[in-house]
Design brief:
It is built from 10 helices and 12 strands. It is α/β, with parallel strands linked by helices. A hairpin with a 5-residue loop joins strand 5 and strand 6. Strands 2-1-3-4-7 form a 5-stranded mixed β-sheet, with helices on both faces. It has a 3-stranded antiparallel β-sheet with strand order 10-12-11. A two-stranded antiparallel sheet has the order 5-6. The chain has 2 domains: 175 residues, Dna Topoisomerase Vi A Subunit, Chain: A, domain 2 (3-Layer(aba) Sandwich); 64 residues, Arc Repressor Mutant, subunit A (Orthogonal Bundle).
């Protein structure tokens, strides 16, 4: 059995569940790119793939994650996945996804390439389903990493084959999003994705900045903790740079020294950094 996830944080959660239930035994594969943001036009072709890679190079510049550009190779991951399915007629893949744009976009990107293996792919979509948190209270997780290991054991009952009709219809939805080629994808509900402009998160980012100066890592941590619709830290910094170019915020410091050297503030606020 191959378990497939779309976020690094989900790996540890699933490993803990496997340790509790030997029927889940298998190895875990991660699709690493965040297909919820960035260009998608001709993404399966060399030119489109390179355009996306160039975009990520710009986004990751001077970040703590700049090495990710050379680590992420989802094309190779899919090639190896297909090879495993070809070589072992009994092999199957369980695709785990939470109700969030990151996972759903990753699912669409992946399954569009796997139609010949319909019948060997199970999907576990934890869509608007209640689970128990560590205090025994009901909650509705949006990310797999929020789920307690013992709750994963219950979740395995949700596994179902990706249907032939899904293999017919879902790739068309994904193709439409790729052709629209907007900067952001947004999950409206279920598996319904809509395209949004690259500035989609800007209003919320601005609302979560304090008037006075903050070190960039502190501002970033606050934004990530309060955002209603989550996105990655590098994408938020990418948008902060754009907002600074538009004169809506002030970014000061030396990017060459990394995020820790940067200070962000609203125009007119105090430039004295106040840390929490």
């Amino acid at each position: 059995m191959i378990h497939l996830v779309f976020e690094t944080a989900n790996i540890a959660a699933l490993e803990a569940a496997i340790a509790l239930d030997e029927t889940l035994a298998g190895y875990i594969v991660e699709i690493k790119d965040d297909y919820a943001v960035g260009p998608l036009l001709d993404i399966y072709e060399t030119e489109g793939y390179q355009a996306r890679r160039n975009w990520w190079a710009n986004v990751l510049a001077y970040s703590p994650h700049s090495d990710q550009l050379n680590i992420v190779d989802d094309k190779l991951t899919v090639h190896q996945l297909i090879q495993n399915l070809e070589e072992d007629s009994n092999e199957e893949v369980w695709i785990w996804m939470g109700q969030n744009t990151h996972d759903v976009c990753g699912y669409y990107w992946l399954m569009s390439q796997l139609k010949p293996y319909q019948g060997k792919l199970q999907v576990l979509y934890l869509n608007n389903l209640p689970f128990l948190n560590e205090k025994g209270q009901l909650f509705y997780p949006t990310h797999l990493s929020e789920i307690q290991p013992k709750e994963f054991i219950k979740a395995k009952r949700l596994a179902r084959p990706i249907t032939l009709s899904e293999f017919e219809l879902d790739p068309d939805e994904w193709k439409k999003l790729c052709q629209e080629n907007e900067g952001v994808r947004f999950l409206e509900g279920g598996k319904k994705l809509v395209s949004m402009p690259i500035s989609f998160y800007d209003k919320e980012i601005l609302s979560l900045l304090t008037k006075n100066a903050q070190k960039l890592p502190s501002a970033l941590a606050h934004i990530l903790s309060k955002m209603k619709v989550k996105t990655g830290d590098t994408f938020i910094v990418f948008r902060l740079k754009a907002l600074a170019e538009q004169g809506k915020i002030v970014l000061a410091g030396n990017w060459e020294k990394g995020w820790k050297d940067m200070v962000v503030q609203m125009p007119g606020g105090s430039s004295v950094v106040v840390e929490d």
